[in-house]
Amino acid sequence: MKNRVHVYLLAFAVFLIGTIEYIITGVIQMVSNDFNVSTSAVGLLVTTFALSAAIGAPIIIALTVNIDRKKLLLTMLTVFIVSTLLSFLSPWYD
Q1: Is position 53 within any domain?
Q2: Is the pLDDT of residue 40 over 80?
Q3: CA–CA separation, 71 and 67 (whole Å)
Q4: Of 5, 15, 24, 22, which is closest to residue 77 (Cα–Cα)?
């Protein structure tokens, strides 16, 4: 029973991370208007997120080969949540 809860939580976390990457494309015009920047500049948010994941993931995997995967997953999820909250709280777009 305990493992089932962990699997559901992990699946939910993966769903949220995937959703966050693509949700910006649906509201890109509103973000552009709110921050008074061009739509293409806001479009770089998606590109930056995707590139950082594509480049960072193999590097993190190579550097943490001897670390417990459960601890690594929790650490990376924490970093993701904190960075998302920091960008949410940011009052400007630079």
Answers
A1: yes
A2: yes
A3: 8
A4: 15
Contact 31, 42 (CB under 8 A): yes
Quick count: other Cβ atoms within 10 Å of Cβ 84? 13
Six token digits for residue 28: 């890109």
Average pLDDT, the chain: 85
In a domain, 71, yes or no: yes
Question: Could you tell me the residue range of the domain that residue 17 belongs to?
Answer: 2-89
In the predicted structure, residue 65 carries a pLDDT above the cut 80: yes
pLDDT of residue 51 exceeding 80: yes
Helices (H), the chain: 2-26, 28-35, 39-63, 69-89
Does 10 reside within a domain? Answer: yes
**d(Cα 34, Cα 22) in Å, to the nearest integer?**
19
For the question of whether the overall pTM of this predicted structure is more than 0.70, the answer is no
Q: How many domains does the chain have?
A: 1
| Domain membership flag for residue 94 | no
